[in-house]
Amino acid sequence: MSHEDVPREIKDEMEQLYEDVEGLRDEYVLLDKIGEGTFSSVYKAEDIKGKVCQRYSSHFWTPGSRYVALKKIYVTSSPQRIYNELNLLYMLTGCTRVAPLCDATRVRDQVIAVLPYYPHEEFRNFYRDLPIKGIKMYLWEMLQALSFVHSKGIMHRDIKPTNFLYNPEIGRGVLVDFGLAEMQPDYDRNEVEEDSLASIRDWRSHEQFCPCIVRDTNKQNASSPMVTIQNGKVVHLNNVNGVDLSKGYPKNETRRIKRANRAGTRGFRAPEVLMKCGSQTTKIDIWSVGVILLSLLSRRFPLFQSMDDTDSLLELCTIFGWKKIRKCAALHGLGFEVSGLRHITENGFPNALKEFIYKLLDKECTVGTFPDYSVAFETYEYLSQELYDRRSIEPKLPGSSNAETTITTEGPQAYELKKYQEEIWSDHYWCFQVLEQCLEFDPQKRSSASELLQSAFFNELNEADIYTDVETTDEDQMSEEDQAVDDDLLLIPG
Amino acid sequence: MTTRSPLKETDANLRQPRLHLNNEDESSAATNKKRALERLETQQQQQRKKPKAERARSIEGAVQVGKSTALKNIEQKVTPSELLEWQNNWKKIMRRESRIYFDTTDESDCSKFIKNRMDKRRDLLKKGFLSLGAQITQFFDSSVTIVITRRSVENISALSDSDILSRAKKNYMKIWGYEKATRFLKNLDVDLDFLEKSKTTSLPEPTLSNLLQNEKLYGPADRDPRTRRDDIHYFKFAHVYMYDLWQTWAPIIVLEWKPPDLADPKKIPYPVLKMGTFGRCPFIGDGACDETSYKRVVKRCNRDKANKKYALRLRLLYQHHAEPSIDSQELMIIPHTCLDSEQCYENWQKTLAAETDNNEAAEAGSKCIWKEPVPATALSLRKPLVSGAANVLTRQETEDFPDDLCNSKKQSRVTQELKASGVHQSNDVATSFGNGLGPTKASVTNRNIKNLSRLVVDRKLGTKAPTAVNTNKITPATTTTTSTVEVHGTGSHEASPVVPDNNTAEKEAEEDSRQKKRKTETATPAPVARRDNAKNSGYCENCRVKYDQLEQHIVSDKHQSFAQNDLNFEMIDSLIDKLKFQF
Asked: Does the keyword Iron apply (chain B) (predicted)?
């Protein structure tokens, strides 16, 4: 493959990098610039000696590939930030679904990190066409990655399609960009619980504290006001300062503005992030997984398009209804009032997510924007059956009553199709369950990555027991056609 | 005790016994109405100790009582009417002008157990006072009228001048111990036992009936916590409000719209489900794009044809197993009953064929070329997004927005990378992002323009978190294939893909279009110029300065002294050493 067409500016830039980082030339050949962010630029490069590729061969999707991604971290980034990211990457080496830090170098303030190069497909090129089992594989890979990351106590904080590189041809995905990731602090709820009501009052003024962590699962602890919050009976707390602030706000606000880590991408932020919960956990990543799954099932991307956190919450309101948001707010010690807004109802869609997805697909099915070969029809038919035709449990072939249909209702072909549909239907059933588990508002009730991996949705993968070994040699599993495809041409279909 | 506490906690203070007392001593009651509580108190005190000689102020300031009169009244009893009057007086005072401050200082030799118990009592007292409508302040200031302390109130003069209690005394505030406060509440018929038991539901919800009842009980008093106050803005119109129930923090969301703002159903200022089609964000909808129009149907049909091979390959790969594999070439397709793009196209063909008098349209249709005149509305949308004053980018998202589907770009599997590029051809921010499905053609321009137009309108709420994320006014374009731009957000993080992202051109087949793209980039000088202004400015986290020119900044003495100092990079170096060691 030739990189001669690389424009002048990029060539200059790469030349500059060679000069800035002496010794770089001996190890890597810069080929092209492949990405740019706030804190870094990424170049595709070749590992001359091949030592990185050899050492981390299990991570490389294409056997024998010598391509690596060189991440040039901008000199204006603080060493703390750089160290945080590199150290997390280093800690996470050992899972083939997380991009490992293969090599790094520093010359004065210039830091370069070397990661494997992954020939992936862009999400927006396959989200409309990925079949349900493809969605399963995508999710499996993503949850495996997260399960590993979370097991190390790390929150990724920015789970979204662009940070999960997936190659549908080989069914492999890798989690990248830990620039926002952080260790989940140890929220010691026992310490808080031992204290009396009075000191919870004091705890409230800690930014790291959120009442959501001191909820008691057994309701015996009725003296704790937190249980009151959990039950939704929260009004008595409004009066703490002798002023009722549930219907208005002080004109002259003297209270501090609560800050919380809200890093991440709007549209993928969990409700607790939007509500500035001070005790965020790895569950925030699971919510983001749910948003991606919602995108895949409804064949819409992006699914949320909010300008800010407020809009994000209102978007959730339109789907789930304000009652659910209010209940969630109460978990975090917040009150929530919506009044006079058209289209925002108390309960949102009657069947919440399923109904929402159905309505989205229905719109496209009515206007005719899916191609005739679309896999979205499967989900659509499944939902119309489940939501509106509950009498039959068995999958029904649409049009099977229609004499004109090309599919005969008898014979081995029909049997195969029926079998196929049953399989797809059951996949859908479990997939929607996973979706609901991901998009659970209460972070404590939201399933963890490892719990989700135990879902019946992933039965066939759990039984196959593949890819679960962290350092398995994946080259063996590459199918023949994958090997035939050149590294750079891998993604062209056919 | 220097300050006398006239109200002792005894059964005699309760209503029924008092009635009894009254019957016994009816004659003296009338003349000594106002001293009722004094007498009540002293009656009980007598049994234990002698009345206090010193007495600067009377019971709770309701009436000024001299030393001598108090002594004279010792034997007198309290009548119900006197008590009622006293109660009414105090209830009024509580509602109208009492500001109560709870002293936070403990006795020095206070065990944790006792502290906890006192804390519980304090909370109970707070509830009691709140139920009377008194105001409890978090901070001590000169407006406080009553200070309630758990310390001994006997030796206030011995405390330092800066102590809350001595300051309170100097300002003639009442200083009550917990004992006294409890007695006081009991005499005002506040059922503390009940409050304690029903901790969790101590205050009723402010429903209308509650409010009415309160009004009946207290009258329309200013200090009722639920009545309107001048210093509070109450929502009048449609609003969204998310606030801290404990009032520790400022509200998280405060939004209110005047009716005119919501009058136009097409311009609702909050997210509304528009559903939309063709993979678009349901909150954006199709906007000006009519997917049923002939033009769009043809485009979609072509796009779907181009994409079919890939889509069917995915179907085959994932037909029977989650692990991609192709067992057979036989495709399982469940027949559907929906309208699809091919049917749409055929329907149009039929319609056009029927219109025999419109030869041109029929011809255009058969060639899949759209020849209808461009509607005026579509033309008006075809201008790049203008970054006006309202377009303030305050937070950089790590998400890269795909293009609008409605712009005229041709997409095929091969030229996929182009999808990330191009000018938004809508001046509506909300509709200017797409999902990559849009057909792509030569109107592709610099991806920077897209980034520049990715402006986020900040509502400028007073409640915005002052995080670094929000400090950037305009954060410049961040992704470009051509420039040496370095872009700097302070607290946010832009995607820094490890592997080819949107602008990767890994396929040789793409090279052509890529060249084209780069050419077009240079052919659009206006946005490039704008980008140049922004591209070199940013924030250096190490020097903690904003700079206008990156090149100038990084050679500056300050930055260089940082860069040259290995100590600053010790952590990173040790990590790199660990990595090098493995080879």
From this structure: no
Give the pLDDT of residue A400: 54
Establish if B495 belongs to a structural domain.
Answer: yes
Q: How far apart are CA B256 and CA B461, in angstroms?
A: 10
In this structure, the answer to whether residues A86 and A195 fall within a common structural domain is no
B24: pLDDT strictly greater than 60: no
Interatomic CA distance for residues A299 and A364, integer angstroms:
10
Indicate if the alpha-carbon torsion angle B41, B46, B49, B53 is positive or negative. positive
Task: Output the average pLDDT for chain A.
Answer: 83
> In the prediction, which pLDDT does B356 show?
60
A77, A126, A417 ranked by CB distance to B314: nearest = A126
The boundaries of the domain holding residue A417 are 120-251+260-466
In-domain check, residue B269 = no
Shared-domain flag, residues A303 and A362? yes
Residue where a domain terminates, one of A57, A92, A116: A116
Indicate if the pLDDT at residue B177 is higher than 60. Answer: yes
Most confident of A213-222, A302-311, B12-21: A302-311
Question: Which two tokens mark A343?
Answer: 């289209």
Contact A248, B236 (CB under 8 A): no
Neighboring chain B residues of A88 at a CB cutoff of 8 Å: none
- Across residues A80-89, what is the average pLDDT? 94
- Return the closest-CA partner of residue A70 out of A95, A99, A93: A99
> What are the tens digits of pLDDT across the range B76-101?
567 788 888 888 888 888 887 888 88
Q: Which chain B residues touch A39 with a CB distance below 8 Å?
A: 489, 493-494, 496
What ipTM was predicted for this assembly? 0.85
- How many residue contacts between A and B have a Cβ separation below 8 Å? 616
- pLDDT category at A478 given cuts 50, 70, 90 is very low
| Tokens, residue B359 | 């030869």
Partner A, chain B 254-293, Cβ-Cβ below 8 Å? 254-255, 257, 262, 265, 268, 270-273, 275-284, 291-292
Whether B19 shows a pLDDT value over 70: the answer reads no
Question: Is the pLDDT assigned to residue B191 strictly greater than 90?
Answer: no
Both B437 and B492 in a single domain?
yes
A242·B272 Cβ contact <8 A: no
Could you tell me the CATH number of the domain that includes residue A86? 3.30.200.20
Whole-angstrom CA distances from A355 to A212, A294, A349, B210, B492 are 29, 12, 6, 39, 35
Q: Which of A102, A327, A373, A472 is the best substitution to test chain B (most B C-beta atoms within 10 A)? A: A373
pTM of the model: 0.65
Residue B531 sits in which domain range?
A: 377-535
B24 has a chain A CB within 8 A of its CB: no
Question: Which whole number is the average pLDDT over B423-440?
Answer: 35
* Whether residue A421 sits in one domain with residue A281: yes
| Same domain membership, residue A191 and residue A286 | yes
> Residues of A with CB below 8 A from B401's CB?
302
pLDDT bracket for residue B206 (50, 70, 90) = low
Give the count of domains, chain A: 2
- Dihedral through CA A453, CA A454, CA A459, CA A461, nearest 10? 40
Name the domain boundary from B535, B550, B567.
B535
Work out the minimum CA distance from B77 to partner chain A, whole angstroms.
35
- Is residue A185 within 8 A of residue A277, CB to CB? The reply is no
Residue A475 included in any domain? no
Residue B581 lies in a domain: yes
Q: Please check whether residues B60 and B17 belong to one and the same domain.
A: yes
